[in-house]
């Protein structure tokens, strides 16, 4: 054995090998801590993907905000329409609650089943003409749909709207008077203290349908009420009470009590009032698009049917103009005969 070389060789290996291993480990650790350029930034593909994702998120956000805004605007229009119709219904309810419908009195309506109803009656007021006289005061009140020109965003358009007309009356008799006495006074004496039911004003900007169905004493629902049996319609045609709306031979007095019922014995116990309404901007859009006539597609109910129920059915099957389809709203209230 070469003692020198063998021992030296093993000694050299034994002493130098661990040092080389430690140096190698330190070198690897140092290299791992050195930042490398390609790993320190996003690649072009990564940037493009991120931009595409951001664009998609932006589009989705805009769509969500747009749909939310549309829903909010629609809800606002519906809320405004609801409030207007509620005011109109409340006004009609208040008027009809004080209507003179007993002791020979009645109300006048159109005698045909038309798309819109027309109603006239006299109502009393709790306000007396003066403290020294018992003469009560009242009003000749009318409700009906008239064509009205409106303006929306600088554009004029004409549509039918529910209107109310009234005129003050100071009766020259006692509080208990018959309808024939009232109309005789209006038609024969100079009515200096009487203003007929003129002063017509829209009750709201969007009530386009007004229909009255009649609930009879036997529970039937009809569209033309039983006629007052003691007074002919011609009696009313000459009175100033009817001034304000187009008149003709189609007016009739309604039987509201058994003593005034016709031969059938039927009389009216309650009015079932239906109203259809839309916002002014929707009506303006329908007018400019030539689609306002689609309101007529709501139809006119027959006996046994309430107008609101018919309108709700025809809205989804016959009205195709989307703004009207989305915005027409229907309302109903029953007014008991006072």
Word description of this protein:
The protein has 338 residues and is an alpha+beta fold. It has one domain (63-336). It is 38% helix and 25% strand. The strands form 2 sheets. A 6-stranded antiparallel beta sheet has the order 5-4-3-2-1-8. Strands 7-6-9-10 form a 4-stranded antiparallel beta sheet, sandwiched between helices. The longest helix is centred in the first third of the chain and has 54 residues, at 44-97. The chain is elongated and about 130 Å long. Mean pLDDT is 74; it is low at 1-17, 171-197 and 232-248.
Could you give the order of the helices and strands? HHEEEEHEEEHEEHHHE
- Number of helical segments with 4 or more residues: 7
Query: SS-based structural class?
Result: alpha+beta
User: C-alpha Rg, in Å?
Assistant: 41 Å
Roughly what fraction of the amino acids lie in strands? 25-35%
The percentage helix is 25-40%
Number of strands: 10
User: Mean pLDDT score, rounded?
Assistant: 74
Give the terminus-to-terminus CA distance.
138 Å
The largest pleated sheet is described as:
6 strands, antiparallel
C-alpha geometry = elongated
Low-confidence regions: 1-17, 171-197, 232-248
Record the strand order, biggest sheet. Answer: 5-4-3-2-1-8
Q: What number of domains?
A: 1
